[in-house]
Specification:
The complex is a heterodimer of chains A (587) and B (588). Chain A is an alpha/beta fold and 587 residues long. Chain A is built from 21 helices and twelve strands. Chain A has two domains: 199 residues, Up-down Bundle (ABC transporter transmembrane region fold), CATH 1.20.1560.10; 235 residues, P-loop containing nucleotide triphosphate hydrolases (Rossmann fold, 3-Layer(aba) Sandwich), CATH 3.40.50.300. In chain B, helix 2 packs parallel to helix 6 and helix 19 crosses helix 20. The chains are: A alpha/beta (587), B alpha/beta (588). At the A-B interface, helix 2, strand 1, helix 3, helix 5 and helix 6 of A face helix 2, helix 3, helix 5, helix 7 and helix 8 of B.
Chain lengths: 587, 588
């Protein structure tokens, strides 16, 4: 019970937020609701006029053409007005829905640029995409339009009842009492089919998993001549699914015929009672026509409302997810001072940092890098080498201590100016879905083709770019380039900007020897004379570094030169012997 | 669609009966207005209670009969559509399993899985709806018109005008919006792509301070999407009001015409009511039909995709039996001037490869990524056919082996260490269904995996989750090696299978394999020179060419590519650079 009320409260909050969100479109929502009521009343009134008209046609000598004409002209006018009103309402609804969606998405994309990395790292990109695309659609379709539908459904029921009452109280009460029967039937069937549906869903899930496994690894299946057994395994689950599906499909398809049958019985009863009322002079034939046509449509708004309410609950949940995203607190305000870099000296003093503030990760970490020196960061996979990058680039802020670049505290300068000071090449080779040229010129959109080609030559990427079908204009898709080529493009992107400091992440994935040598050469060129931080996997990089930071389980455990660290006989020595000796890659 | 429809064969009876029963149901619906007319014209007009009660009973009877027909129809439709999709799914699964690697490469795993799952579900749904409803709506529409003509021809002419007009509006708007909806979907996909890109690239975007530009790009697509939405929205906004207008105007004209006909004595009041009721039935059915056609259209597209897949013939064929004369030879594998490319138009993955492997030898294959190492072993197992030249195993052309015979000889450990849901035992038994527990433990010992399995609860019965995700990469890799060893293969292929193993385990593994009894031929594919240096023969590949063959020492003396690879991994050994004796000892 308390859970119900608390979720009601959240729903109310979400609704209030939605109203605030649609702001200037609130008038549209009002117009939509008013137009909906208008069309409902008009559309429901038309059958009454038709009933009246039929009452003018009793027998060959009893047809009042004049009265009939007047009624029909009235009906025509109402029909035209109601059609126009429906059309305007549809247009209003479109505007309301599409513009709300557009505004919410525009806000969301801006929010993404301002959210702290801690938020984005904690949410999978699929989840955030879902909020911005599907949930936002639900917010507008399900919530705003659902609200209009709900409203017009209620109006339909009230107006129908009122009109029916005006024709005959007894028949109206009868319809009112019998209608729930149809609901009960529907619910009875739903309860019966629910069990089958959940079994169907569960079995289908298992089948999909099996398909993913066997078809996804078909090469292994074939290599072991396992096809017959796989087929039998699939058949077992497929036959099981057939049983459940057949029942689920059958039971669920009983709802419509059953409720229709109940409706038909109600219809027959109205005809019977109506006919007897006519005989006793308390109803006209036109009145019976009206009652019959209402009895026919009476169930529809109930069905609509029940489906809209299910939809609304879902839409509210979606809206809450959208709000959670667009209302998350952005990164703290930025300093306006620009970082002025000269040389690239980095000084880290007593820094403490952890992702989960309840746990301690890095504490009392101090480190100094002279301008133009190279620092290697090493450690086993998953030891948190990216933490260091996160702090240098201010993707995350330190909990205590300070980081100075060329004597300026990075907290006192704008993030943009700090980040522009670094060139960054990460292991995940992110490229835009755009042309090669646009990707290389990402940091300097004004670069000329000559500059781009020069950078590409420097970074050894020109060799493959010029062999691409459209050269620099070749669009990049997810799998059009090899991992090594993507890495080279990322290097070229930095090569074009040539910032004073570098953050590099050597690739661990298997890249062929030749490309790897090219990447190494490009890295070496970039690093010449620049303060560089390299997440290192290669022995040579580590040995040539001026300083080495050794990380383990997210902490920095040792620091010094190669010789100093070997002399320590500590974790570095262990790491070196286990992984570096005997093979070039650290994996 | 013939390849699909054969699977409906067992459900012929149901597929015919379902729509017929549905027609019977709609016939009941069509009779209702006539009965109501009788109540008015005969019962009320003549003040005959008996007729009213009789007609009421008839209405109830029609309702009950209609429901019974409908239930039967739903059962037939459910049985036929679910049965059909079950058979189709099995057929597709078996068909996919029969395809060769070349087709699998071209199709891609995602496509195969979509066809197997969501496409077939859509087809089932579409078939079910089509069996139940496709005939029903047109039947009611035309039935209503026929009834109208039966009542009164001049009034019924209004139906003959209204129905085509309504169809024109409903189907016109629908057909015009389909391509527009497709474009909306495209724009939405683009927006989705940009959103994802902004999230996955957030560090790079911030590092380059490109937040503003990304937002601008997003806004442009967002704006375009909204425009397109409004465009198609304007069209579909017409549907309701237009149909409503047409049907109501038709009704007005109908009542007017009816009045004149009643005045002329050609019609009764109840007939007018019946005509009015028929008019109301039409529009509901037309709208239902339009949305039904959209669903069925979507299912047909899925059906075509599944059909296309079923029509793909495997590119490999196998003879029934081995040739009668089997040569006696000690050559386990021979490549006779073999060239190979993965696609018919693409670059050669292997060109003119020529080598001989004697039974019991250990062969190292080394080279960079894309040099063709995996291609060589793929040809040995005949996962692909060579474009030129011949591959021979035990002196017989691989193409002369019947299906499954070659695979039986070969134990392969693929690059990607994949295990399947089940237990350690069920996975190992893939190699040989009849292997005893001792044999499994022997294979595990050789694969250096004894400790891995001993460390799990249940040992051989320890559960393996899907894809083996409850194991580390190194553990998975050792189990896949054991799986291949359980087979006691004549030829063992380790395709870069030690990449997740540390150096010591890799070494122990190679020693254990070398010490196995019998004369198993072993291929070790690797990027590490340390993994192949003890091999009897090393094949050095570079860009699809065989650039060196020989032992480690021979290659160090003569093969430039091999030297390049070696020195990139052991820079200490490069001449003129200081010599680190300690490292040498470790690797020896």
């Amino acid at each position: 019970m308390s859970q119900g009320t608390s979720s009601d409260a959240t729903s109310r909050q979400t609704l209030a937020k939605v109203l605030a969100l649609i702001g200037r479109y609130r008038l549209l929502l009002l117009a939509s609701v008013l137009l909906a009521s208008l069309t409902v009343v008009l559309q429901l009134y038309v059958p009454i006029l038709f009933g009246d008209a039929i009452d003018q046609i009793v027998a060959p000598d009893d047809v009042d053409l004049k009265a009939l004409a007047a009624i029909l002209v009235q009906a025509l006018a109402l029909v035209i007005v109601s059609s126009v009103a429906t059309w305007v309402m549809n247009m209003v609804n479109n505007r309301l829905a599409f513009h709300t969606v557009k505004d919410v998405r525009a806000r969301a994309i801006r929010q993404i640029q301002r959210l702290p990395l801690s938020y984005l790292d904690a949410h999978s990109s699929g989840d955030v995409v879902q909020r911005i695309i599907a949930d936002t659609d639900q917010l507008s379709d399900g919530l705003l339009l659902g609200f209009t539908q709900l409203f017009s459904g209620v109006v339909t029921i009230v107006v129908t009842l009122a009109f029916m009452l005006s024709k005959n109280v007894g028949v109206t009460l009868m319809v009112l009492v019998l209608t729930p029967v149809s609901f009960l039937v529907a619910r009875f069937i739903a309860a019966r089919s629910f069990d089958m549906f959940s079994r169907q869903t569960e079995t289908r899930g298992r089948q999909t998993a099996l398909v993913n496994e066997l078809v996804g690894n078909l090469r292994v299946v074939k290599a072991f001549g396992h096809e017959r057994k796989a087929s039998a395994q699939f058949k077992a689950i497929n036959d099981e699914l057939q049983g459940y599906s057949q029942s689920a499909v059958f039971y669920s398809s009983l709802t419509n015929p059953s409720t229709r049958a109940v409706n038909n019985v109600i219809y027959a009863l109205v005809a019977l009672v109506g006919a007897r009322l006519i005989l006793s002079g308390r109803l006209t034939v036109g009145g019976l026509t009206v009652l019959l046509s209402y009895a026919n449509q009476y169930m529809k708004p109930f069905n609509d409302i029940s489906s809209v309410i299910t939809e609304l609950q879902n839409a509210l949940a979606c809206a809450a997810r959208v709000f959670e995203l667009i209302e998350a607190s952005p990164e703290p305000a930025d300093a306006t001072t620009e970082l002025v870099s000269h040389g690239g000296e980095v000084d880290i003093r007593d820094v403490a940092f952890s992702y989960d503030k309840r746990e301690r990760l890095i504490e009392g970490f101090s480190f100094h890098a002279e301008p133009g020196t190279k620092t290697a960061i090493v450690g086993p996979t998953g030891c948190g080498k990216t933490t260091f990058i996160n702090l240098l680039m201010r993707f995350y802020d330190t909990d205590a201590g300070s980081i100075h670049v060329d004597g300026q505290d990075i907290m006192d300068v704008s993030r943009a100016s700090l980040r522009r000071t670094y060139g960054m090449v990460l292991q995940e080779t992110w490229l835009k879905r755009a042309t090669v040229r646009e990707n290389i010129a990402f940091g300097r959109p004004d670069a000329t083709d000559d500059e781009i080609v020069a950078a590409a030559r420097e970074a050894h990427s020109w060799e493959f770019i010029r062999r691409l079908p459209q050269g620099l204009d070749t669009p990049i898709t997810d799998d059009s380039l090899s991992q090594g080529q993507r890495q080279l493009l990322c290097i070229t992107r930095v090569m074009l900007c040539l910032p004073p400091m570098l953050i590099l992440d050597e690739a661990t994935s298997s890249i062929d020897t030749r490309t790897e040598m090219q990447i190494q050469e490009a890295f070496d060129k970039l690093m010449r004379g620049r303060t560089s931080f390299v997440v290192a996997h290669r022995l040579s990089t580590i040995r040539e570094a001026d300083q080495i930071l050794v990380m383990r389980d997210g902490r920095i455990v040792e620091q010094g030169t190669h010789a100093e660290l070997l002399a320590l006989q500590g974790f570095y020595t262990q790491l070196y012997n286990a992984q570096f000796a005997g093979s070039a890659d650290l994996g | 669609m013939r390849k699909l429809l054969v699977h409906l064969h067992d459900y012929r009876r149901e597929s015919v009966l379902a729509p017929l029963l549905k027609l019977a149901e709609s016939l009941m619906d069509l009779l209702v207005p006539l009965v109501v007319a009788a109540i008015i014209d005969e019962g009320i007009a003549r003040n005959d209670q008996g007729i009213i009660w009789g007609r009421f009973a008839l209405l109830i009877g029609l309702a009950v009969l209609g429901m019974a027909f409908s239930f039967a129809a739903q059962w037939m439709a459910a049985k036929a559509s679910v049965g059909f999709s079950t058979k189709l799914r099995q057929a597709l699964f078996d068909h996919i399993q029969g395809l060769s690697y070349r087709e699998l490469d071209a199709l891609g795993t995602d496509t195969l899985i979509t066809r197997m799952t969501s496409d077939i579900s859509q087809i089932q749904n579409g078939l079910n709806l089509a069996l139940r409803l496709l005939l029903r709506s047109p039947f009611i529409v035309f039935g209503a018109m026929v009834c109208a003509f039966a009542i009164d021809v001049p009034s019924a002419l209004l139906f003959a005008v209204a129905i085509p007009l309504l169809s024109l509006v409903v189907f016109g708007i629908m057909l015009a919006s389909i391509p527009l909806f497709a474009r909306v979907q495209e724009a939405l996909d683009q927006l989705l792509g940009m959103t994802r890109e902004n999230l996955t690239g957030v560090r790079v975007i911030r590092a380059f301070c490109k937040e503003r530009q990304e937002v601008d790009g997003f806004d442009r697509v967002n704006e375009a999407l909204t425009h397109m939405n409004e465009h198609v929205g304007r069209l579909s906004a017409l549907m309701n009001p237009a149909t409503c207008l047409i049907i109501n105007i038709a009704t007005i004209l109908l009542i007017r015409e009816g009045a004149l006909r009643v005045q002329a004595g050609a019609l009764q009041q109840g007939d007018v009511v019946a005509l009015y009721n028929y008019m109301a039935q039409i529009v509901v059915e037309l709208v239902k039909l339009a949305s039904l056609i959209i669903t069925i259209n979507r299912s047909l597209a899925c059906a075509r995709r599944v059909q296309d897949m079923l029509e793909i013939a495997p590119s490999m064929s196998y003879p029934e039996a081995l040739p009668d004369k089997v040569p006696v030879t000690d050559e386990a594998v021979r490549f006779d001037h073999v060239s190979f490319s993965y696609t018919t138009t693409g670059d050669a993955a292997l060109s003119d490869i020529d080598f001989v492997v004697r039974r019991g030898q250990t062969i190292g294959i080394i080279g960079g990524t894309g040099s063709g190492k995996t291609s060589v072993v793929n040809l040995v197992a005949r996962f692909y056919d060579a474009t030129l030249g011949t591959v021979l195993v035990d002196g017989i052309d691989v193409r002369a082996y019947p299906a499954g015979a070659l695979v039986d000889k070969i134990g392969i450990v693929p690059q990607r260490a994949v295990l399947f849901e089940g237990s350690v035992r069920s996975n190992l038994l893939w190699g040989n269904e009849r292997a005893s527990d001792e044999e499994l433990w022997e294979a595990l010992a050789t694969a250096q995996a004894t400790e891995v399995v001993r460390g799990k609860d249940g040992h051989l019965d320890a559960p393996i989750e899907q894809g083996g995700r409850n194991l580390s990469g190194g553990q998975r890799q050792r189990l896949t090696i054991a799986r291949a060893l359980v087979k006691h293969p004549e030829i063992l292929i380790l395709d870069d299978s030690a990449s997740a193993l540390d150096f010591a385990t890799d070494l122990a593994l190679r020693r254990a394999i070398a010490n196995l009894p019998g004369d198993m031929t072993v291929f070790i594919v690797s990027q590490r020179t340390s993994s192949v240096r003890q091999a009897d023969q090393v094949l050095v590949l570079d860009d699809g060419q065989l650039v060196g063959t020989g032992t480690h020492d021979e290659l160090m003396a003569a093969c430039e590519v091999y030297q390049e690879i070696y020195y990139s991994q052991f820079p200490e050994d490069r001449p003129r650079v200081g010599h680190h004796a300690t490292l040498q000892e470790v690797t020896a």
